Structures are given as structure tokens and as C-alpha cells.
Amino acid sequence: MYKVKLMNKISSEGLDYFNEDYEYGETLENEDAILLRSASLHEYEFTNNVKAIARAGAGVNNIPVEKCSEKGIVVFNTPGANANAVKELVLCALFLSSRKIVESIEWVNTLKDDENIGKTAEKGKSNFVGPEIEGKKLGVIGLGAIGVLVANAANKLGMEVYGYDPFMSVNSAWALSKHVRKAKDMDEIFKTCDYITVHVPSTKDTKGMLNKEKFALMKDGARLLNFARGDLVVNEDLLEAVETGKLSKYITDFAAQEFIGKDNIIVLPHLGASTPESEDNCARMAVQELKDFLENGNIKNSVNFPAVNQPRESKVRLCITNKNMPNILARISKLFADHNLNIENMVNRSRGDYAYTLIDTNDDVRQDIIERIEAAEGIINVRVIK
Ligand SMILES: NC(=O)C1=CN([C@@H]2O[C@H](COP(=O)(O)OP(=O)(O)OC[C@H]3O[C@@H](n4cnc5c(N)ncnc54)[C@H](O)[C@@H]3O)[C@@H](O)[C@H]2O)C=CC1
Ligand SMILES: O=C(O)C(=O)COP(=O)(O)O
């Protein structure tokens, strides 16, 4: 029986994949795996029984990934599963940033007792004029699952789109419209574009990347959308840029006290992925990743361990997380040979400082041999699946 601890509400479309071999819930203890959305695990005490974490979503900045790697905990996310939901909200935000839609709605609501509301509305509408997006320049920083969809859709809406992503994947490159222009660096986006939208993860390199110096490069009255993470922006600098009119609008999916009630700042409550379609997609993908890992040791869409998939053809499978260092495989193979155990299949892949090994055998591997493998230098943990 596998125990899966839920730390957020997860769509039943995914949870339904858990069969009678699984128990899941928010209160269970000594879990084998954790399934969550945005709940923070930074203060969480992981027991030695935790083998995997699945983030039903994209961003993993709520998870102490390095600490998990050190403990041999495989962290998964669900690439692209909520990208369309975010794209649609970003398109909405493009219009909200351009036309004074929110402000005008708020104003009309103040006319509740106005007997000549029709006339007053007509008279007041000139206060809410805003430009069309067609023909304007949009800069997309980060061309991953979301950025590509946003860039392509904005292009179809008649915008002149510039993209910047020095680490773009081959899949993203294939998916990106040929009409999207390649900015030579991020500053070109800041200097050139009327609208800027960021779609990068929050990492030590991207935190605070939208700051005073960058705002100074922007066109007067530029519009900035942030549906990626709040900490990409230095809030104090942002407030100054909005107050001076450098930015004519900031729309963000990440609430901060200092933004509340400020003119020309629109804050949404992290709604990007909150559609039934996206919640279902993420849950299905996350649960399938967890199940294949727990039941077969296969890894797909991990952010800290390599992708490994080996069909199950033997009685016993050893799943080994280890440091990426020389001689580990040789030592494991020798232990097998010394005990007359035959390896049927073996796969080893590395990723940065860590590696993952699957060893299949039809022989019974005694507990003392497992313990000797576990004790070897560089081995983090060993799991036996029968
Ligand atoms: N508002 C919401 O509800 C949601 C927010 N997000 C946020 O959006 C981010 C992006 O999501 P996806 O597009 O699905 O992820 P993704 O991993 O497909 O794309 C991220 C892209 O950013 C690029 N990148 C990384 N560092 C960069 C840098 N310094 N400069 C330029 N590009 C850089 C990567 O090369 C990659 O192509 C997530 O990490 C998450 O923080 C994601 C989903 C929902
Ligand atoms: O997938 C992401 O990175 C998100 O930000 C979505 O977060 P959520 O699952 O809606 O709490």
C-alpha cells in the first residue's frame, strides 16, 4: 500500500487513477509521496520514507529541490499541463492593461443611484480611453510552454512580437511562430516593446530581474504583465515606476500588500492555472508520474533526476539514487557478481550532481546485500520493487 499525502486540493480526474494499492489524504503520516500545487514545502520535515514529490503545475519554487536531491527524493512537475490556462489569462491581461476596463467597471458601479445612468455613462466614457494592441510591440521573456503560446497568440492578434530566451528548448523552438522576432538580449525587449510579459521560473538568477535599472530602459508608459512569480519584480522599484508613469500599467497574478488599492496596478489572486481543464490536466499528469515511479521506478518529468524508463521484464527491480561519481556502477556490479546474482537489465543516467540507476534481476536479492549497496560511498538510497 502506497501512501500519498495531499497538500492542496487536487482534481479527482487525477486522484481517480489511484487504485486500491493507494491511500491518499491530507492528514496521513509516514507518506511515500507528496502531491501538491503551490503549498510551500520549505519548512516541511521529510521523513526517510518520502520517495517522491509531484507538483501538479509548473513552478517548483515552493519545493526545496536541492534538499530533496540530497535525500534522493525525486521531484516531478507537469510541464505544459496548465500553459493554455495561463496563456488565456495573459491575453485577457493584455487587454486589461491597454483599455481601462477594470477602472471603467469600478466607475460604473458607483453610479448605482444615478437616475440618468445612461447619460452619465456616455459622458464619463472619455476618461477610460485606451489603445488597441494591434500593431503594438509585445516582448515575451521566457519562451517555454506558456511564453510560446502567448507569443503565437499575440502574433495572431496582430501584435509585433519579440521573444527572448537563451535556454529555449528544441520543442519550444519548433512550436514558436516564425513571425516572432528574436531579441538579441533582454534589454532589447525593455527598450523596444510597448507591452512586456514574463514567463520564466523563479530561480536565483531571475529573482529581482525586473528592477530599477530595467524599468529605466523601458519606453515611457510601457505596460508590464507578470504571471510568472511575484519575486521576479523588486516591488519598491515597481511602485516607483508606476507612480512616475514610466509604467502605465502593471498586472500581476501575485498579491503583495503594497500593491493593493494603487492606481494602475491590477492584482489577481494567482488565477493563471485555475481552470477545470488545467486542474484536470495537471492532476492526471502528476498522478501518472507518481504511479509509474512508485510502481516501476520510472522517471518522467522530474526537475532533479534524469528521465529513465525501462520496461519491467524481471522479477525484482532495484531503484538506486546516487551521486554522479565514478566507479559506483562497478561497485554495485561487483557486489552482484560476488553473490552470484545475475543482472538482467541495467540503466544508469546522470543529471548534474545526481544519477539514477535501475537494475533488474530474476534472483532474490537478500536484505544484507541491499544494505551493503546502501552503505557504499555515493549511494543515496535503494528501493526494491517486486
Ligand atoms: N500564474 C500561474 O498560475 C502560473 C505561473 N507559472 C509560472 O510560469 C513559469 C513558466 O512556466 P512554463 O512556461 O510552463 O515553464 P517552462 O519551463 O516551459 O518555461 C520557462 C522558460 O523560461 C526560460 N528561462 C529560464 N531562465 C530564463 C532567463 N533568465 N531568461 C529568459 N528565459 C529564461 C526557460 O529556458 C524556459 O524556456 C513557471 O515557472 C511558473 O513560475 C506557471 C504556471 C501557472
Ligand atoms: O503551475 C504553476 O507554476 C502555478 O503557478 C500554478 O499554481 P497553482 O497550481 O494554481 O497553485
TrEMBL record:
Keyword Cell membrane: no
EC number, as in UniProt: 1.1.1.399, 1.1.1.95
Signal peptide interval: none
Annotated InterPro entries: ACT-like_dom_sf, ACT_dom, D-isomer_2_OHA_DH_cat_dom, D-isomer_DH_CS, D-isomer_DH_CS1, D-isomer_DH_NAD-bd, NAD(P)-bd_dom_sf
Reactions this protein catalyses: (2R)-3-phosphoglycerate + NAD(+) = 3-phosphooxypyruvate + NADH + H(+); (R)-2-hydroxyglutarate + NAD(+) = 2-oxoglutarate + NADH + H(+)
Keyword entries, A-Z: NAD, Oxidoreductase
Gene3D superfamilies assigned: 3.30.70.260, NAD(P)-binding Rossmann-like Domain
Gene Ontology molecular-function annotations: NAD binding; phosphoglycerate dehydrogenase activity
Major enzyme class: oxidoreductase
Stated name of the protein: D-3-phosphoglycerate dehydrogenase
Source organism of this protein record: Faecalibacillus faecis
